[in-house]
Amino acid sequence: MAFLAPLWLSLAVLAAVPVLLHLLRRNISSRVEFPAVRYLQSAERESSRDVRAKNLWLLLLRILIIVLLAFAAARPMWTRGEGTPRALAIVLDNSLSTTALVGGTPVLDRLTAAARDLRAASAAAERLWLITADGTLYTGPDAIDAALSRVIALPHAGQLDAAVRTAIALTQSSGSDGGAVAIITDGQRTSWQTDLPATAARLRVFVPSLVPLPNGAILSAVAQPQWWTPRGTLELQVQAVRDSTAYRIAIGDNTLARGVIIRNAGDSVATARIPLVGAGTGWQALEISIEPSGVGADDHAIVPIVVGNSPAVRESAGEYAAAAVSALRESGRVRAGGDVTVSIAPAAAVTALPALILPPSDAGGLAAANSNLARLGIPWRFEAEQQGAQVVRTLHGELRGDSVVRAMQWYPLVAQPGAIGDTIATVGASVWMVRGPKWMLVGSPLNPAATTLPVRATFVPWLADALSNLASGTTVAVHATAGNPITAPAGATELRSAAGTFRRPVSGGSMPAPAEHGLYFWTRGTDIVGAVGVSLDPGEPLLGRATVAELTSRFGGTDRAELNMNAAAFLRSVRQSGASRPMVVPLLLLALLAVLAEAWLSGRFRTRAAAGTDSLARTA
Question: How many beta carbons lie within 10 A of that of residue 326, not counting itself?
Fold first, then answer.
């Protein structure tokens, strides 16, 4: 017998209460000889025997009632022999970590084989379900067989805890006392990070005893800057299994670089900054690959970049902007002239887009600034000047993580009806920086009296990225993990893959990233307005199995879950769960019978006691 809620067994200590009351009610007194009532001694001895018998039976019944209620509250399960569960939900872990090789075979193959064996052994089940790590549900033997024949690993950890919750809900909704949940998993720690809620469901868990090969993986790949002219830098971070890790970087069939990354002694992670020269023009997929290892799916990554000539810049925004543009020209990031010219100027002086648009230097130019914004078709306006020292808070990291930029003079930006635009930074409750197609508005003039941005180390890199994005008409490319939420840039109508095989219309501001890793574009009609580089879950390549104690705790303890590392033992435990029956109702019925018996005995003894009292009175 097993208990689903063993803590309630502690209620059994209340059985001591009737015993204590029985002892307290004992008649302890001194004996006094009273000759006038000696003739009652015989009747008294007979009455005392009846009272003792009555009290003993009542005491035993009351103890039994309390013990039965305590056992019922602990929700005992009686197991006898083996049998097929009437309702069985199988949760199959096909997360990214299951692609790890053990003995030359992916772990997923072993898990799928265990699921097939369980499915074959459960042919007599009335209800049968299979739930994979991404929450996909298959119902019935035929659908499950088909799913197991084509199951593949996900590019991320999935949501196994949600899958288990679904399995529990299915077995409980089936109305079957013989229902069970079978979980087949590799035990990857990153897949089981939260405790499951308390439940009456019986969980049977199979975690094969495996030692996967050491795994090398690309943990991070970031292109700097976004716009390559055509030179750029790739910041690469890998999980290394050896002292050196070979890599290849390419755009299509054009190999840009080959080499090795050397890790420091004692470190498991190696990093490198690799200077490169891009190929082609426009948006390109920078493909990075390292030598294969334990989890093959994390040995490559794709980073979106823009390759083209340096944008031409025309500025009239003060000495700090002029000095930054001069530095960018010397480094080749921008040019003095060219096909695309980006303006940096106060709103009233901008004649055409693309442009980085600033507010007027004083409040007197506010009307002219807003009038020109309307002429340019920009659906935002500058409000009345505000002053004070306020921290600028960025929403998307465009200021390179600089958290101490302040604004002392600013013009809050206000959207007009139907406006589009991505808010980049705020001051208090006001929008301070916003970006749209081929324009960017900043709420303060670029001088130290209005904002500290021009004197911060992040100013020149931020300006370089802003100018590149304005010249290309795109937003900064986003790196996302497959399945995680991504936010569409302003005006985007569709997300599509670089090859055009994937298309998803934009509905609302957020959507899950595609499951397949690769390069995707945000589009508005035929225009590209942004890019997303989808990569694999960075936690899954860090292979680390949770201990038996950790997994047991996640599943609610040994009273709710049984873990097995042997497939035969796992199948046997599932069959035993099918032979288990809850004992709550029988125990409650026994408790009810004991209550009725206690009430009947109490009433009977009260009647007999009353009759005995009348008899004694008549005798007296």
Answer: 12
Pick the range with the lowest mean pLDDT from 61-70, 182-191, 248-257.
61-70
For residue 249, list its beta bridge partners.
257, 288
Copy the structure tokens of residue 580.
């288990």
pTM: 0.59
- Cα separation of 366 and 382, whole Å? 7
Across 71-145, the runs of DSSP E, i.e. the strands, are 76-79, 87-92, 101-102, 105-106, 127-132, 137-139
- The tokens describing 194, both together, are 């939260």
**Beta-carbon count within 10 A of 311 CB:** 24
Q: How far apart are CA 340 and CA 331, in angstroms?
A: 18
pLDDT tens string 554-567: 887 776 788 888 88
User: Which tokens in the block code for residue 140?
Assistant: 């019935």
What's the token pair of residue 162? 């949600």
Whole-angstrom distance, CA of residue 313 vs CA of residue 341: 5
Which amino acid, one-letter code, is at 6?
A: P
* Cα angle value 311/400/393 (rounded, 5°): 115
SS3 assignment, position 485: strand
- Tokens found for residue 619: 């005798």
Amino acid at 451: T
Q: Can you tell me the distance from the alpha carbon of 182 to that of 229, in angstroms, rounded to the nearest whole number?
A: 56
Mean per-residue pLDDT, 532-554: 76
Q: How far apart are CA 598 and CA 610, in angstroms?
A: 18
3-state secondary structure (DSSP) of residue 512: strand
* % residues pLDDT > 70 (the chain): 81
Phi, psi dihedrals of residue 124, rounded to the nearest 5°: -85, 0
For 398-464, give the DSSP string.
TTTT----EEEEE--EEEPTT---EEEEEETTEEEEEEETTEEEESS-SSTTTBSGGGSTTHHHHHH
**Cis amide linkage into residue 354, ω under 30° from 0:** yes
Q: Above 70 in pLDDT, residue 394?
A: yes
Angle between helices 107-121 and 567-579 (to 10 degrees): 30
